[in-house]
Amino acid sequence: MNLKIMLALSVVICAACAQPGPSSEPAPLSVKKSKVQQVSNVGFAGRWTAEIVMPEADPKDPSQKMALEMAKALASSIWLELREDGTFMLSMILPIEGTWKHVGNKIDLKPTSFLGMSSEELKKKAKESGEEFKFESEDMSLEVSSDGKTLHLKSDKPEEGELIFKRQD
């Protein structure tokens, strides 16, 4: 998933959820469990913390340097929890939940809720507050390093950098 899209999603969701309403506590995720999926996911289950790797900023452009520092600060609060039952929670300012599976050298994430709400619920909430919600969730694919110790979320555009998740001890 494009890192800029993920940040834009956070801003849109914050605007949509600024109106008073039900608790923002994420709702429990109900997912059918598959024994085959559980077996293949067990080795990656656990909490992973993120760091961001960005291309060097142009020293002549202070806005690039500031954006790089902001991205690094944001990455320090990002974590991913892969659960043995095939569900995940990704915290990137806001909680994103869904399902995951290990396929080859990839971990595929399929988001199903943001702040405990489905895409349709977010659209409805945005509409109620006079905003338009244009984002559709995108599946994410993390590349597993050859030693299995890191997961890489790369942008299609190298200038947007990548997130590297490391297993939290």
Oligomer: single chain
Count the beta strands.
8
Mean of pLDDT? 74
Rg calc: 17 Å
Describe the main β-sheet briefly: 8 strands, antiparallel, barrel
Which second-level CATH architecture of the domain at 31-117 and 137-167 applies? Beta Barrel
Run of helices and strands:
HHEHEEEEHEEE
Measured by DSSP, the beta-strand proportion falls in 25-35%
Helix content: 25-40%
SSE class: alpha+beta
Number of helices: 4
State the name of the first-level CATH class of the domain at 31-117 and 137-167: Mainly Beta
Summarize the structure.
The protein has 169 residues and is of the alpha+beta class. The protein has four helices and eight strands; from the N terminus they run H-H-E-H-E-E-E-E-H-E-E-E.
Please characterize this protein's 3D structure.
The protein is of the alpha+beta class. It has a domain at 31-117 and 137-167: Beta Barrel (Lipocalin), CATH 2.40.128. It has helices at 3-17, 35-41, 62-75, 119-128, and strands spanning 46-53, 79-82, 87-92, 94-103, 106-114, 140-144, 150-154, 162-167. Strands 1-2-3-4-5-6-7-8 form an 8-stranded antiparallel beta barrel. Strand 3 and strand 4 form a beta hairpin. Helix 1 crosses helix 4. The longest helix is centred in the first third of the chain and has 15 residues, at 3-17. It is flat, with a radius of gyration of 17 Å. Mean pLDDT is 74; it is low at 1-40.
